[in-house]
Amino acid sequence: MPQRVRPRHCDAQAMVYAGRYHEFCEDAFLDWLEHAGLPYAALRALPPGVDLVISEARYSYRRPARLDDELLVAVTAERTSESALTARFEIRRGDDLMAAASISYVAVHSGRRSPLPAVLRDMVPAAAPDPGRLLEALHNAQAALYGDGDDAGVRRLLDPEIVWRVPGHNQIAGTYRGVDEVIAYMLRRRELANATFRMHRLEVMAGPSHFAALTDGAAERDGVRHSWSTVGLYRARNGRILECSLIPLDPGAFDAAWR
Fold first, then answer.
1. Half-sphere exposure of 41 (CA within 13 A, CB side)
2. How far apart are CA 34 and CA 84, in angstroms?
3. DSSP string of 132-143, one letter each residue
4. Structural domain range at position 138
5. 221-258, pLDDT tens digit by residue?
6. Per the domain annotation, does 161 fall within a domain?
7. Are residues 68 and 156 in the same domain?
8. Percentage of the chain modeled with pLDDT above 70
9. How much of the chain, in percent, has pLDDT values that exceed 90?
10. Where are the alpha helices (DSSP H) in the chain?
């Protein structure tokens, strides 16, 4: 959810006061409910009629936001219990993470805990595949795209807010944002290599949401066969790829392949 920093959000140093991040998250949570088809008024109208009360909020501040910054607040439902929902918030300025929060909401009716409405429990995404399986699915989908031009599999695995970074001085270098830009970048690779581009994954090092993969690549261009190796740094969200940054082990070889 977009949020522009206004003078009322700032202290005397024109930096966002710490307590204002909570307001950003609360506004984003209400917008998230509405975007999911459950405005807060509609939630209260569900039998038996509940309110959501904050029981716990944890914030981590990474860097200061300043006057007139354009921020984006991402909301993800992490888990639920019989009467509570916990949501994860990330407040970003472009690629920079400014603050993150975990906020737990308890369903209350007539001053007492109440069962969480089923519609809220359903907002928690299904368990994401482990990073190894997710990366294997991505590479299989990329193989279909680079071979046959079929981008449907890749599209299903990319988060709508995907950011894909490619370094160097070559025809594919750049930062690509959004599914359409990333797909266009991959199709450009296919075109440049005349559908000869192939990937071979070697090793994966994974955590819960961040993982790295060492991958060999090869392509033939103008009768010359090129090969290189890259480390891909990935971040996932809700079972989809949210970020990828490529790091060539030999930048010269990578540039030569895509010059």
1. 0
2. 19
3. HHHHHHHHHHHH
4. 131-258
5. 999 999 999 999 999 887 889 999 999 999 999 999 99
6. yes
7. no
8. 98
9. 68
10. 20-35, 40-45, 118-121, 131-148, 152-157, 179-192, 251-258
